[in-house]
Design a protein that fits this description.
With 202 residues, the chain is of the alpha/beta class. It has one domain: 3-Layer(aba) Sandwich (Uracil-DNA Glycosylase, subunit E), CATH 3.40.470. Helix content is 45%, strand content 12%. It contains eight helices and five strands, in the order H-E-H-H-E-H-E-H-H-E-E-H-H. It has a five-stranded mixed sheet, sandwiched between helices. Helix 1 packs antiparallel against helix 4, helix 3 packs across helix 8 and helix 4 crosses helix 5. The longest helix has 20 residues. It is globular, with a radius of gyration of 16 Å. The two termini are 25 Å apart.
Length: 202
């Protein structure tokens, strides 16, 4: 099954790489490959989009910038290694402003990429999905409706689409600076650790 899974995943990666649906992202390459993580992960993380200095440059999600450093700190706090997880984004390509700065993906771009996200979730089939930021939480809502918000449900364990869904804040420096610092995010990440402990005891 592992070989068949890897083959299907590679086919999906190639399809994403060739996608040119979004006009503003047509010159970008989708960040989706074996560098995204394990195909049998303990946790399937969904973030916003590849960052200019991070994943779009390194081709590895949350790698090479401050967001990646913060994310690694959060992972370390609950004993998860990169080999234990898979990380993807609401939008596979890196959205940029006219000045080439990072920007949030548009609603249309999220909808255009929704099928790629859905197919990753279904193919990899992790029992635990964790969204990082409001964009990711809203992106999964496109796939299967929910009433969750970061304000009300950050760090909580919820049922969604036959899985466990944990909404989390994004570990970007901007979010960390807006009174959603690493101390709060470390506390929220413990929800994932508790899930792992409970599963181990079953």
């Amino acid at each position: 099954m592992t070989g068949a899974l890897a083959l299907k995943f590679n086919e999906l990666c190639l399809e994403a790489r060739e996608c040119r649906i979004c006009p503003a992202l047509a010159d970008k390459a989708a960040v989706l490959s074996s560098l995204n993580g394990s195909l049998t992960p303990k946790v399937f993380f969904i973030a916003e989009a590849p960052g200019r200095q991070g994943a779009d440059r390194t081709r590895r999600p949350f790698w090479g910038d401050k967001s990646g450093e913060n994310f690694q700190t959060l992972l370390d706090s609950i004993g998860l290694a990169r080999e234990d997880i898979f990380i993807t984004n609401s939008v596979m390509c890196s959205p940029r402003s006219p000045t080439d700065a990072n920007r949030k993906p548009t609603t249309a771009e999220i909808k255009n990429c929704a099928d790629f996200l859905r197919r990753q979730i279904e193919l990899i089939d992790s029992p635990v999905v964790a969204t990082l930021g409001s964009v990711a939480l809203n992106a999964v809502k496109v796939l299967d409706d929910h009433l969750l918000t970061l304000k009300e449900h950050a760090g909580t364990v919820n049922r969604w689409n036959g899985r466990i869904l944990v909404p989390l804040y994004h570990p970007s420096p901007q979010v960390v600076a807006m009174q959603r610092g690493l101390a709060l995010q470390l506390e929220h990440f413990r929800s994932i650790r508790l899930i792992e402990v409970q599963k181990a005891g079953e």
